Amino acid sequence: MKCQDIEHKLVDIVSGKLTPTELEDCRQHIAHCVACDEAMRGAEGLAELRSRDPGSLPAGLFETVSARLERRADQDTGGNRFWTGTAFGGAVAASLFALALISGWIQLPPNAPDQAAPEFIVALSESRDLNVAIETEQALANATITVTLSGGVELAGYTGQRQLSWEANLVAGVNRLTLPVKATGIAGGQVIVQLLHPNSEQVLVVGVKANT
Amino acid sequence: MGNVVSFRRAPTPQQRFEAVIEPHFEALYGAARRMTLSYHDAEDLVQEVCIKAFAHLDRLETMEYPRAWLLKVMYHLFVDNKRREERSAIDAAATGQDAGQPETLDSGEASLDEIIDRSQNIERVLNAMRCLDPDQCALVAMHDVEGVSIAELCAMTGQPAGTIRSQLHRTRRKLGRLLSNDAIRRLHLKIVGANR
User: Fold this and answer.
1) What are the pLDDT digits (tens) for B22-78?
2) Which of A29, B87, B138, B175 has the least C-beta neighbours within 10 A?
3) Other C-beta atoms within 10 Å of B26: how many?
4) What is the pTM for the complete model shown?
5) How far is residue A131 from each of residues A14, A99, A176, B21, B48, measured CA to CA in Å?
6) CB contact under 8 A, B121 and A45
7) Contacts of residue B13 in chain A, CB cutoff 8 Å?
């Protein structure tokens, strides 16, 4: 038997997986080989550690750790302030309307960035759906929609996230986007919806106020 | 109203984290309990690993064997943390703060003396492991203690199986020498003495 054989069988030796004959062969080699004897002692120590029963996973530990991480992520991003501009230029082949559901549908006239931003009122810490109408003259495939939040505003289910971006296919005409908006502070904030497509760029800013 | 644009419920980082980590969490906790001497230390260690995992979520999601990566991080932390807070056995005795609460091993039918002996042996092994290079410690512990396969180790390290086997053998030898070392024994005995 060679050292290399022992190297391959060491874990099996300490795990008791060898036949008595195989074990005896190994032991004879180890008894006369310093290197393999050392490795054997190391493997025995590790086997002892392996045999230690870790007990069962405490109930709720994963949820606790996960919640701690979520709070930590919130603290890391909570003070961030993203872009709060009101509009940017570009070819406008689409128009965004905020449909603030306070007393019926309120529509912004298209291409009117100087208009005051529409306001959306929500109860503090309760989410309310903000419906945004996106009107396009032509269908837009793979348009990028980006929602940016500033101030004390969140989207329900997206704690700590200040910006969300995804692709969507828009049909010609009106497309509706519903956002579950939540005010996290009495100062409120803004929801900025941006549409990006090679044929169209548009942005809408909606002021969010907390109704205390 | 016409078309409804779905507000894509893209998974949040939290949801992504849970999807990647939860399948391995029990294994992580088990490893943490084996290498720490109290539930609190195990929980702290698991949490440290999770913090690192959270920071490397993109990478973890593409890994074939995320468990091996997580365990490697854990063993690195195990070695690094202990070295950082390393203090002499005399300090431990002076402050009355030992390495943790007396071990709660699966006693089965073992007598109290056997339980104590086993606890002391495990502490000795842990002390010796802390003297290893963090990479060596992680590699040998992952394979010999946590049962990570050679194939997983190859995928994780990018090294061939033969190289991994040689490294494992060298590290077992080094550990064997450390376990024969009087210094490890003395350190262990002093800490146990301080706890009584």
Assistant:
1) 999 999 999 998 888 778 888 999 999 999 999 898 888 888 889 989 998 998 888
2) B87
3) 14
4) 0.58
5) 67, 5, 7, 35, 41
6) yes
7) 73, 161
Choosing among A29, A36, A46, which should be mutated to test the B contact, i.e. which has the most B CBs within 10 A? Answer: A46
Q: Is the ipTM of this complex over 0.90?
A: no
Name the residue among B165, B166, B172 with its Cβ closest to that of A43: B172
Q: Do B12 and A61 touch (CB under 8 A)?
A: no
User: Which of B5, B22, B125 minimises the CB distance to A134?
Assistant: B5
Measure the CA–CA gap between A97 and A94, rounded to whole angstroms: 10
The pair phi, psi for residue B113, each rounded to 5°, is -60, -40
Distance CA B132, CA B178 (A): 9
- Identify residue B67 by its one-letter amino acid code: R
Q: Which of A42, A49, A70 sits opposite B122 (nearest CB)?
A: A49
Torsion-angle region of B88 (φ positive above 0: left; ψ -120 to 50: alpha; else: beta): beta
Average pLDDT, chain B: 77
Q: Do A38 and B173 touch (CB under 8 A)?
A: yes
